[in-house]
Amino acid sequence: MIDLKGIHKTYHGERSLYALRGIDLHIGDGEFVGVTGPSGSGKSTLLNVIGLLDSYDEGEYRLDGRLVKGLDREEEARIRNQNIGFVFQRYNLISFKTVYENVELPLIYRGVPGQERKERVMDMLEKMELSDWKEHIPSHLSGGQQQRAAIARAMVMNPKIILADEPTGALDSRMTQEIVNLFKECNRDSNVTIVLVTHETSISSQLPRCITMNDGLIESDERR
Amino acid sequence: MKDGNLTPKDFFRDILSSVRMSRRRSILSGIMTVWGVFIFIVIAGVANGTDRGNRSNYDYILKYGKITILPGRVSEPRMGLVKGRRITLTRSDAREALALFSNRAEYVFPRKRSSAAGESLTGSAGLTVSDFRKELDDKYLKIIAGRGFTRVELEGRRRICILPESVAVQLFGSPADAVGSILDINRLPYTVLGVYRTIHNVRIKDVFVPFETAMSMPGAGEELSSIDIKMFLGIPAEEKHLLRKDVESWFCFRKGIDPGDTSALCIEENIDFISDQEKFLGSMRKFTGIIGLLSLLMSILGVSSIVHLSVKERTKEIAVRLVCGSSKGSIFRLVLGESVMIMLIFGIVGMLLGSLALDAFNVVVDRINDGAKWVFLGDMTVSWQIISSCTALIIACGLVSGLAPARKATSVRINEAMNCE
User: Fold this and answer.
1) By CB distance 3.0 to 4.6 Å, which of A133, A153, A187, B251 could disulfide with A32?
2) Which helix (H) or strand (E) holds A209?
């Protein structure tokens, strides 16, 4: 599913910052991988590169067998929409849209017809236990509910991959476990590949595969 | 539909949601747009009114064409006569002119202006005039008390006069009281026959006495100030032009003047005034057009800066849309659409308010213009062509306002935007 070979990424500024320094990584279909490491180790940069949110300088990246270097922006947007769901620490729901409209957004951009769109959104909201909150705007929801809405938005397109960047960073321990369980459920039921960046060992220890990064390099890759 | 784009329904729904979300910002840009368009429409209406008012005045002038002959001094020696010779117009010139042009002109007016008793006097008598009231009417005056001169009075050198309303009120208390009273002009008693009022916008304060009477005053002599030749109603422009040429040739021949010597004899046609007016109005139109466009430009700048701010505030939302599969083109159209929609909705409000204001102005102007033969402002209503051009201009302004912010929106870096607060 995800194949990275010798990926380098440097942020240029007054002082060059080497974020990724030759990453070799293979993540197969349906895997649930945790990425952990100290701040500035390159976890989020790796996730951004995998999710086509950021470019890389050197190396080769194949997504589902396809080389993604040199794609135009529109093609990148299409790949993201069809293959990847994103979950962020700060939920990133659109504040003036209802929960229903937020979950519906990727389907609109995918051009899914109205009736099918409605059914898929309602199914997903039911699965995330958010049906009663569908007409509410995000600020009316608790942090856990907002994150569930963000996961619903990521899952509604039936993506092949979900990339989650510190999805529990803003939640308490009970909510954190609830969200981790939800990811496990998605992974088990839909066979979706999940890459979850976290700095919490309580989460990474629960995952079947855990990659530890340090200073832009993979320090360890443990399978359980 | 192509992937990454919104359906038209979702497109408008998203724009409306965004406008609703940032109500204060939208209202602020709305006020700027309403004001800009309002001013533009009012200026267009006033320009229209000025144009129509003047055109209606021209219609009057074109209908009642008039040639005025004014004497001057010759600029070149001719036929043994010296340079700088003073040209004089006399009563016999007027009589001869009447005899010659009587079949082509309605009246020939000899005129003499003098000053007496602190008032400017206009001695006037048409050599064929039988009723002075007609002349008064044609000159935008009307008798409000008493009557005009009769033919017998005009030819009989009677000491009679017609006063303007202001003089009658000042001297006798009211126009009615003035009629029949005696007025001292140059130490001679004149009976007030009537009182006239100028129709709006015309400022004449002359005391009228019969021409023959005025010419019989001590020291009046034969000399005239000018001769007016009034043409028949509605004669074609070519015929007017021809008559002017003939009058010019005749006077030049009679006075021994070179036809090209414009300083010796000034022959003015009231139609000349139109071209001067047209030139003035053309400049005014350009000026008002610039003011109107400037007010629209201010709206563009206002809306553009507000939409720009909106894009800055919505960086994260734009990034979320991109993450959810939106194409950059869709984001570009969304921001541009928002700008156009704000300008269009509020622009229509501005046009409606502008049209209502012009309707109100029209009511006032109609009252002022009632009965006037000379108007400064006509109907100010703006045409559908102006409304549709204004709508097109508003859409263009919306596009211009939204262009820079839309370009900025498409350059959002997703990963940076997602992590910003």
Assistant:
1) A187
2) strand A209-214
